[in-house]
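Exercise 3.2. Students should predict the tertiary structure of the chain below and write it as structure tokens, then compare their answer with the key that follows.

Predict this chain's 3D structure.
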Amino acid sequence: MQRLVLFDLDGTLTDAAPGIVSSLLYALDEMGIEHPDDATIATFLGPPLKDTFGGYFGMDEAGIDAAIAHYRVRYNDVGLFENEVYPGIPDLLARLTGAGFTLATSTSKPTVSATRILEHFSLAQHFTFIGGASLDSERNSKAEVIAHTLDELNALGTDTSAGSITMVGDRQHDVLGAAQFGIPAIGVLWGYGSRAELEGAGAVATADDVGHLGRLLS
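Answer key:
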């Protein structure tokens, strides 16, 4: 099969932090919950919302559903586009597709939101498939999203020992999710995770910038 590269979205292709943070704080305000400090909020960038509201804030299922609903009120109309493509990403995607790579996303963001973002920034044409979470949270974890993406591309169960598939992301969730399928992951250092986090999770390499990522993939 052609070389397949799975890309995370937030913190990898685009800097979505302003919109995510503002929408998270809006949701907390609506729930009457005090804001954590900035350092804590930064850790919420990357993991699924369900993990943040349930894991950190200790909400039950009803609370999680309510918090996510509040988040989406702001995010779907405003926060989605408080976002910026990282420099060099459009050229990298064009070079990879031109070289015969198959590109797809595997993001914890709902597919509908990921699609709107990629179309807004004229990046969608580079991706054979846009894989994301489901709005009903049935497909939520990074591993579930990767499985969904591979299945849609008829690549689930592919022998990955020859390096035919690579995951690219900025948080440990990307690395650990890919590892469940034997897929090596490259961590990017311009996103929301650190070198220590990515290497500790088992990333096979870390990219300092987009040019470096291109060389690692070639």
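Discussion points: The mean pLDDT is 95. The longest strand covers residues 102-110.
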